[in-house]
Structures are given as C-alpha cells and as structure tokens.
C-alpha cells in the first residue's frame, strides 16, 4: 500500500454523496492536502474552466466522483442530460489531468455498465458482451466511456488511471427527491411521510421481485481509497490492459420487496405494502462479483440493516434541507 499523506488530491464532486464520503475517508486516514471546488467555483462540464483549474495549481491525484445521477424515472425522463453531462465531466477532467501531468486518477463508474442479461453475479469480463438495460442506457454508455478513457490514457501515455464500478449506493448525503432519487432514499422518504401522515399503505414501483445489491457510501469511499493506495504492480496484476475496472459491492442482494420491508421496520411503518406492477422493474437481478476486490484485501463491513438505520438518522437530522 502506498499512502502519500502530503499529496495534493483533487476530489471532483466533493459536494455529492460519494465525493463527500471520499473526503471524509481521506481526512480520517491523515491526508492533509485535499483540493475541492463547488460547482459555482468550477463547472466540470465546461472545458475551459477545467483546463484553467488544473493549470492554476499542482494536483498529484484525482478522485473523479462527480456525475449526474438519478433513478429509473430520472434516467427515462432526461436521457440527453445524463449522457451529455457525464461525458463532458469525464472527458474534461481526465484530459486536463493528463495534460497537467497527473499520474494517478480514480474514476467511479456504475454497475449499470453491464448487460441487462449478464450472468449473475456479474464479473468484470461481462463488460460489452450484451445489450444494456434500456431505462439507463445513455448513462451506462457514458460510464463505459469513462472506463475506456482511463484505459486509453494508460495505454497511450503510461498513466495510472483506475476505475471502480460500485453497485447501488446509499447513505448520508443521498438525494431524497420524491421522483429523481434512487430506490433507497426514495423509499425512506415515502415511508417516513406515510408514518407522518398516518397513511394505511405505501405504493412501491414495480413487482417487488427484482433483486438488488446495496453498498453503504462509507464502504464505497473506503474501497475507493484502498484501490487507489495499491501499488501499481499489485493493481495491474489484478486487471488486464483492456479490462482495468474493478467491481465494488457486498456480494449479497435482496428483493425490492425485502428491501421495502426492511425500510418499513426502520421507519416504523406498520401499514400495507402495495406493489404497482404497471411501473418498470428494470433489470431482474444485479449482483456484483467482488472476488477480485477481495483478493486485493478489501471487503464491505456495513450490513444493510445497519446502513439503513444510519441513513435514516441522517435524513431525520437533515430533513428540512433534503425535503425541499
């Protein structure tokens, strides 16, 4: 493991759920020179701004956690925004990092890069072997492009740009918008409001049968830093030149119905659960094969029930802000 505590580290997307967790993790480990910039200070979709940012300071490492993200509804409704914003962010940050001499970069992707009907659990080798899930294909293509950007800069210029592909993330700092959020924050808010209003039922999109894997954002941050700190030889030995990404997850999944029941217990909801099968389910199952990451010395430590309780406490502490 290589821990350069004085390195100048730019965390792109530090105001987001994952980026803020990475900043917390780095600080807890003793890193002293963390560079951040709000969107008001730096719009990562603007090439000139990103170039000027890298030209104006010395950066040793980059964690590229910035992205436009959302759930099924948001991906279906705003496909152009999702593919454009994510392509621009990745291309601008990686190219400017390369031009300014940044040797180490970490790109954070998504499990949606894998084909809709990939064998379960999904291994890294499944990339580009089949058709993507239609509801988030534009976002997935942007994330695949990010992986290939890393591989291309490594191949052509000898950079050390790495990619980690997380499963479904949740935790403090998540987006609790009633329509544009992912399943855990959306359900936490819906169940919480049902308890507040004394509602007899909560309606959940889909049949409840799809299976999903969930990873707490603090575990994701720990995994990202762990992979970044691996020496080059160890990391390279675990990948191949054109297959450089690493899955990050728990290796454990549950049905959406089971998730909803867990969230009901967490929020104290005792009413009826109703599943609206007229709404899309998305992929039937998405479970990551995390054997490669385990072989590199890391595995998740936060169980789903504990993670849901932690996330709900954060929601309650920040309710006035996140429900706007």
Features:
single chain, 324 residues, alpha/beta, Rossmann fold, 6-stranded parallel beta sheet, 4-stranded mixed beta sheet, 12 helices, 43% helix, globular
Secondary structure elements and pairings:
Layout: E1 8-12, H1 17-29, E2 33-35, H2 47-55, E3 61-64, H3 72-77, H4 79-99, E4 104-108, H5 137-157, E5 160-166, E6 168-170, H6 183-197, E7 201-205, E8 211-216, H7 217-229, H8 232-237, E9 245-248, E10 253-255, H9 256-267, E11 272-276, E12 285-286, H10 291-295, H11 304-317, H12 319-322
Parallel strand pairs: 1-2, 1-3, 3-4, 4-5, 5-9, 6-8, 7-11, 8-12
Antiparallel strand pairs: 8-10
Summarize it.
By secondary structure, the chain is of the alpha/beta class. It has a domain at 8-174 and 213-251 and 287-302: NAD(P)-binding Rossmann-like Domain (Rossmann fold).
């Amino acid at each position: 493991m290589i821990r350069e505590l004085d390195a100048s580290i730019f965390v792109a997307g530090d105001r987001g759920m994952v980026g803020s967790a990475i900043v917390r993790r780095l600080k807890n480990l003793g890193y002293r020179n963390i560079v951040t910039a709000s969107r008001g200070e730096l719009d990562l979709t603007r090439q000139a701004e990103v170039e000027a940012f890298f030209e104006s300071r010395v950066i040793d490492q980059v964690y590229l956690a910035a992205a436009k993200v959302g759930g099924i509804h948001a991906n279906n409704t705003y496909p152009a925004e999702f593919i454009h914003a994510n392509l621009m962010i990745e291309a601008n940050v990686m190219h400017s990092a390369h031009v300014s001499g940044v040797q180490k970069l970490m790109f954070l992707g998504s499990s949606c890069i894998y084909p809709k009907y990939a064998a379960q659990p999904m291994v890294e080798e499944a990339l580009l072997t089949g058709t993507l899930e239609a509801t988030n294909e534009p976002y997935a293509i942007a994330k695949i492009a990010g992986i290939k950007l890393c591989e291309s800069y490594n191949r052509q210029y000898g950079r050390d740009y790495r990619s980690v592909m997380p499963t479904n993330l949740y935790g403090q700092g998540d987006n609790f918008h009633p329509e544009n959020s992912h399943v855990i924050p959306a359900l936490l808010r819906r169940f919480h409001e049902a308890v507040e209003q004394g509602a007899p039922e909560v309606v959940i999109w889909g049949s409840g049968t799809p299976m999903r894997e969930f990873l707490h954002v603090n575990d994701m941050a720990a995994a990202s830093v762990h992979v970044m700190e691996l020496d080059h030889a160890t990391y390279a030995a675990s990948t191949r030149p054109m297959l450089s990404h690493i899955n990050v997850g728990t290796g454990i999944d549950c049905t959406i119905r089971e998730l909803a029941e867990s969230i009901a217990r967490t929020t104290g909801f005792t009413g009826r659960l109703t599943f609206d099968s007229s709404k899309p389910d998305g992929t039937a199952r998405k479970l990551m094969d995390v054997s490669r990451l385990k072989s590199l010395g890391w595995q998740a430590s936060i169980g789903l029930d504990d993670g849901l309780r932690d996330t709900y406490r954060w929601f309650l502490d920040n309710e006035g802000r996140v429900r706007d």
